[in-house]
Amino acid sequence: PVLVVDFGAQYAQLIARRIREAGLYSEVIPHSASAAEFAARKPLAIVLSGGPSSVNEPGAPALDLGVFDLGVPIFGICYGFQIMATSLGGAVARTDKREYGSTPLTVTQPGALLAGQPGEQTVWMSHGDSVSRAPEGFTVLATTPGTEIAAFEDRARRCAGVQWHPEVLHSEHGQQVLETFLRDIAGLSTDWTSESVIAEQVARIREQVGDKQVICGLSGGVDSAVAAALVHEAVGDQLTCVFVDHGLLRQDERKQVEEDYVQSTGVRLVTVDAVDTFLGALAGVSDPEEKRKIIGREFIRAFEGAAADLVAEAAEGAGEAIEFLVQGTLYPDVVESGGGSGTANIKSHHNVGGLPDDLTFALVEPLRALFKDEVRAIGRELGLPEVIVSRQPFPGPGLAIRIIGEVTEERLDILRRADAIARAELTAAGLDAEIWQCPVVLLADVRSVGVQGDGRTYGHPVVLRPVSSEDAMTADWTRVPYDTLARISNRITNEVDEINRVVLDVTSKPPGTIEWE
Ligand code: XMP
Questions:
Q1: pLDDT over 80 at 340, yes or no
Q2: What sequence ranges are listed for the domain GMPS ATP-PPase (predicted)?
Q3: Catalytic residue selected from 27, 99, 167, 298
Q4: Cβ atoms of residues 139 and 113 within 8 Å
Q5: CA distance 261 to 255
């Protein structure tokens, strides 16, 4: 892989993603890894990411200097650019000219790295220190008002770096910089694609599972759907999928799983009808954490029940128990739970509907190395229907945490209808790619006065919560065009009798979370 060194900010994952977009498989590695650990992962190239510290501060995140002697091409970004400078004999100094945000860049000497790029361009900067002397053998390529040395390269050593952040979209030719480095300076071929991932994973799953039985819980979401499809591609009918209908799903989701998904994949599916159990357990509960606990517990019970039935059947038939459980774990979860570099773990609740830990299965996790958009690309490649592949993230506890107040069948029905309208209109307006997800939240205990036709109404409000995000850790509210908002509002208030008001949530994350509960 191309290894992206994490110096403790959130840049590393984004860089890893951009490198994959450039057609090379990449992984994140902590800066504390030794040179031997770097070497053991057989890197094709190493990219040093940005970080929040100053290289000259005591205790600033460092890098084993031996990494520079591995003979591997190295690219430095921001903090990584400065680490490269000081490690190879250059210098970094604190300047008074802090640059933050969009900054004009002048290319003084394009070299290989900036060849073919405009002489003047806008890049995105975030630094207080600057490289004050380039290491010997390096050519300086560009300057900004705040730093004379904004980029350098040494082609003989296959090293280069930039002070700006090429991975963010605000840097005009950022992706081109990364691609040029990988292709022209590092000399790598860019041929990592969905097909190659599928072939590799299918082989790996076959090796892991052999001729044993496998079980997978389908949530209706993208990750479990694609994970199951990959496993099915690898071991066919050794896989059984279990879908628990807890009654907290959105309109048509059960159908999407039971019909569309089964038709396009041919997987064997067992549906557990658990609506009454779940709603019974949720009766009278309005505390969000309490709801999550109940749903998690009931889910595990339902899943265990289905698994036990399957085991019993299998024992009578082929005489073989189920040994493997498929999980749709993604790469960001792996980095966040194992990275240990101080990123707060806010996501422990994200596997509700996933892991009954006391079941003794070995895990099959074919998506562990992938980002969400790559999972979608693989799903398409495997022929999954677009309604499933392009589905926006949906929380395990479902609509239960989008009803503020007690969850009842009637309230679920109201919310389901409003949600279906919002989704249909956002899709029709072509906004699905721009919007990460758009929770519709029913304020079930709030009523307000309205007027409709010639009568007074006293109904509930729903909140639209469209957000844009790269990974759900941070988000901004999406600027949905007024016309689209108007259409959604009109349709919901006309078509869903119990709702007489539609409001828009204009809070970013932080401070708001994406969901209301
Ligand atoms: P928040 O509300 O924490 O949501 O900003 C971040 C992302 O996580 C989803 N989410 C959940 N997913 N179980 C899940 O499986 C949960 O309990 C849960 N709570 C939030 C949310 O939809 C968003 O994508």
A1: no
A2: 192-391
A3: 167
A4: no
A5: 9
Across the range 358-387, mean pLDDT stands at 89
Rounded (5°) CA angle 130-131-135: 175
Structure confidence by residue, pLDDT tens digits, 72-129: 999 999 999 999 999 999 999 988 788 988 999 999 999 999 999 999 999 999 999 9
Beta-bridge mates of residue 319: none
Residues in the ligand 1 pocket, defined by CB under 6 Å: 292, 349-350, 352, 393, 395-397, 437, 472, 509, 513-515
pLDDT of residue 139: 98
Q: From the CA of 439, give the closest atom in ligand 1.
A: 22
User: pLDDT exceeding 70 applies to what percent of the chain?
Assistant: 94
Task: Tell me: is residue 90 an annotated ligand-binding position.
Answer: no
**207: Cβ–Cβ under 8 A, 6 or more apart, which residues?**
none
pLDDT for position 349: 36
ipTM of the shown complex: 0.98
Query: How far apart, in whole angstroms, are the C-alpha atoms of residue 446 and residue 456?
Result: 16
Mutation pick for ligand 1 pocket among 223, 346, 505, 515 (CB with most ligand atoms within 8 Å): 515
Cross-strand bridge partners of residue 99: 127
Averaged over 143-157, what is the pLDDT? 96
- Residue 460 is among the residues annotated as catalytic for this protein: no
Helix (H, G, I), strand (E, B), or coil: what is residue 218?
A: strand
H/E element, 239 = strand 239-245
230: Cα within 13 Å, side-chain hemisphere: 34
Average pLDDT rounded to a whole number, residues 289-305: 91
Amino acid at 435: I
Q: Dihedral of CA 371/372/377/381: which sign?
A: positive
- Global pTM reads 0.79
Residue nearest to atom 24 of ligand 1 (CA): 393
- What value does the mean pLDDT of the chain take? 91
Domains and CATH numbers, the chain: 2-185 (3.40.50.880), 194-389 (3.40.50.620), 409-504 (3.30.300.10)
